[in-house]
Amino acid sequence: SSTPHLLQLSQLCVSYGPVEAVHQVDLHVAAGEIVTVIGPNGAGKTTLLSAAMGLLPSKGQVSLSGGVIVRPTVEAMVAQGVGLVPEKRELFGEMSVEDNLRLGGFSLWRKGERDQGARLQEVFDIFPRLQERRAQMASTLSGGERQMLAIGRALMAKPRLLMLDEPSLGLAPLIVREVLQVVASLRDRGVSVLLVEQNARAALKVADRAYVLEMGAVALSGNARDLLHDQRIIDTYLGAG
Ligand code: ATP
């Protein structure tokens, strides 16, 4: 179809000095899609996400709904409805759950949208656990709760595209499933997702489409369910468990 994709990366290249970490990546996320990028350690997944969010300079093109972002910056991406949940989660440990969430809504507040209460309630509906713990200090949360808070904080800015960097990192398998199921359910709330994961099996189970990144380049892409049954993917990424 001729409808432009929500996010389109075209021939994206990212270098650290002389070393090219991401090489000519073409990737898109259509509205309503959950797309995952899987691949081994050091394949360039975090680098790709950071460049797409404007945290790192890149060559090539980043477009949102067909509009080319000439030089992506975090401010420009946030203003256009993109949210990022970084791998390190970057919460304010000495602040309450609620205050961490309110900080996430700051960009809307600046735009004159003052009804943070309603937004806060929506996030609490998605993560009831955060509501129970709204007054608790972020540093005292469990790993899974911290990940929920990081996602909730990004959702406070009402993104239409949420990019997540390894939300499963350090979480027990049961919690991974819980967090990823919530991520997948965001689609029903009008949020599309770009999910970077080393946990290929868990990611392929919730995603619509997937890209396999190897040594900075797309080695394979396709329907997530097909890749889950692809012998090369099984041998390389789904072997254990
Ligand atoms: P992981 O899952 O381990 O985080 P990844 O797929 O996210 O891996 P990246 O972190 O994007 O991979 O790293 C891609 C390549 O770029 C690696 O070779 C890494 O060593 C290199 N790299 C990452 N950050 C930097 C940096 N700040 N300076 C120089 N090289 C870097």
UniProtKB/TrEMBL annotation:
Keywords noted in UniProt: Amino-acid transport, ATP-binding, Cell membrane, Membrane, Nucleotide-binding, Transport
Keyword Transport attributed: yes
Molecular-function annotations in GO: ATP binding
InterPro entries according to UniProt: AAA+_ATPase, ABC_transporter-like_ATP-bd, ABC_transporter-like_CS, BCAA_Transport_ATP-bd_LivF, P-loop_NTPase
SMART domains, per the entry: AAA
Family stated for the protein in its record: Belongs to the ABC transporter superfamily.
UniProt name for this protein: Branched-chain amino acid transport system ATP-binding protein
Organism: Comamonas odontotermitis
